[in-house]
Amino acid sequence: MKLLRAILVRLMTMSVTLIGAAVVVFFVIRVVPGNPIAMMLPPGATEEDIARLTALYGLDKSIIEQFWIWLTGVVQGDFGTSISLRQPVMPLVLGRLPATLELAIFALVIAVVIGGALALTGVRHRETGTETAVDVANGVGLSIPDFLWALILIVLFGVLMPVFHISGRISPSLDLPFVTQFYVFESIARLRFDLWWDLLKHMFMPALALAIPLAAIISQLLKQSLKETMHLDYVTLARTKGYGENHVILSEALPNAVLPTLTLIGVQFTFLIGGTVIIERLFSYEGLGNMAIDAVINRDLPLIQGIVIVFALLFTIINLVVDMMYALLNPRLRHA
Amino acid sequence: MSAFLTVNNLSASLHGYDQRVLRSVSFSIDTGEVLGLVGESGAGKSMIGKAILGILPSAIDIVEGEILLDGQDLEKMKPADRRRLIGATAALIPQDPLTALNPSRRIEPQITNRLVDILGWTKANARVRALELLNEVHIDNPERVMASYPHELSGGMRQRVLIASAFAANPKLVVADEPTTALDVTVQKQILRLIRELQARHSTAMVFVTHDLGVVSKVCQRLSVLYGGKIVENSSVAEFFDGPKHAYSRALLAATPKYTDPEASLLPVDEAVIEAAAAEVLAADREWRHGG
Ligand SMILES: Nc1ncnc2c1ncn2[C@@H]1O[C@H](COP(=O)(O)OP(=O)(O)OP(=O)(O)O)[C@@H](O)[C@H]1O
Ligand SMILES: [Mg+2]
């Protein structure tokens, strides 16, 4: 029953978070200056045209009324119609979400691999020049934000050594057999590795730009907790049994040292997803973040709301998954 | 009969410093014999145990002397061979059972991993052996304990598990570093009895580190008294309790609580004795520097 209660509490906090996000975004974007209708109409439109369109999108009503109308729609799964794209919001958002998810997941994988490898190398060769080198790499990775990494990578691998594509999600000349928007996953499922490779060459730089700062954070924290763990009695005891350094690090220390890092990755992953907004823009990657910027520029209120809700939902799901993994990996919580 | 463990003239110092933490330590232990290491906190008791088991902190260097385990000089061996030899013939019973078990692993692999990974037993055989040992340390439901995580067991249970784990590979030498100090008094007695029982049954050579001379009298045949990283006295237990040879040992014995005269045992160790012992250590150091 404890479990049931925990799930209920979880669902309630998730709902509160989502409602909070909905309320805040709804009111804030209506308070900031800028008129979506004016953006839609050609210069020289008459007052009547403006009034008619304003009424069409319900923007002539009071904010409270608008909120009520929007909320009753949302509850029924209707997020309204995009003002700039003149299509229902949800299909638009869900059509773009997979591109962003694939980018974020790829970035996360890169960050975990690089960060983990750096941490393990640093601990294996602790108190030597190698550890210092890892510390320096972490410092550099952390002190340069993702969008600057993006520019550096564009110069390096897009201009000086053009090995990766700097724009878009997939080469436009290719014939796409895809039925879902999860191109990377689908290309693997269809064994179309030509397409997969093209997708990767597009995703690599934006993903790496997003990954580097996270890799540095992971490396730093994991190395620190590994080093602390290496001094604990059970690690020393394992040494007396005849185990060497590698085994001791990987089998004795890592499973315990990884727990705090896991929590951190969860939090940082949500930041990484936030980072996709600007990174997708820089690489003209057709994901949700890129769409969000267009929506803001166009003052497309329903679309902004839809995107924010989806992002908020994503964040709460990530937190949930992290908590579940933590409980799964930590025997002390597993039976609690 | 030749000793299973011989420590000859062993000196260790903090990396980069002239100051020694172990000062020309020599002793040996025969199979089936228990040697007590006593001395005040910081005297270097644990350091000796760590040197024998190859787990000295990275900041401590062995600067001279030899450790012969089963006739083989540990310092002259390749690290991998040394680890294997120690893992196969020696074992540690640690001080704090609460921190000496890996919290994220079940008990079974923590007892059997040495057998399987280092000594090449099959998992099934190792499991049988682990159950046998848990019986030997008087654990009633060994199956359940093997499937448990450390946090599910009491301190006394964990120390039993660690003792079982130490004796799993039939070690020729066990280092017990204050194995009961972290336990409460009632459990201490049981654990002490258990260690003695297993040591006697397996005729294990044992280094028993303790502050408690009362325990030494019950568990050990011989003892070495350490002060400032130097052995000031090597005696049999009988000789020692009849009358310690060294002034510092006498002071140590005088400071040990006695039922017969609780007041006297509260007296602090005489300053002059401490100073004399310290002077002796420094003199030994001077001699060592000139000699080496
Ligand atoms: N990691 C380390 N680095 C440097 N010096 C150390 C380290 N560990 C211990 N020492 C020093 O070595 C000396 C011997 O320490 P040791 O742990 O062997 O003492 P002990 O006799 O076991 O004491 P206790 O009864 O408190 O356990 C001490 O003076 C201590 O300061
Ligand atoms: Mg000690």
Description:
The complex is a heterodimer of chains A (336) and B (292). Helix content of chain A is 77%, strand content 0%. Chain A has helices at residues 2-31, 36-40, 47-56, 63-75, 89-124, 129-143, 146-160, 183-189, 193-230, 233-240, 245-282, 288-297, 301-329, 331-334. The mean pLDDT of chain A is 91. By secondary structure, chain B is an alpha/beta fold. Chain B has helices spanning 45-53, 79-89, 107-118, 123-136, 142-146, 155-167, 185-202, 213-219, 237-242, 247-254, 262-265, 271-291; strands at residues 5-14, 20-29, 34-38, 60-69, 72-73, 90-93, 173-177, 205-209, 222-227, 230-236. In chain B, the strands form two sheets. In chain B, strands 6-7-8-3-9-10 form a six-stranded mixed sheet, sandwiched between helices. A four-stranded antiparallel sheet of chain B has the order 2-1-4-5. The longest helix of chain B is centred in the last third of the chain and has 21 residues, at 271-291. The relative contact order of chain B is 0.15. The A-B interface holds A 127, 232-234, 236-244, 247, 252, 255-256, 329-332, 335 and B 53-55, 58, 79-80, 83-84, 86-88, 90-92, 94-96, 99-105, 113-114, 117-118, 149, 151-152, 162. Bound molecules: adenosine-5'-triphosphate (ATP) and magnesium ion. Magnesium ion binds next to helix 1 of chain B.
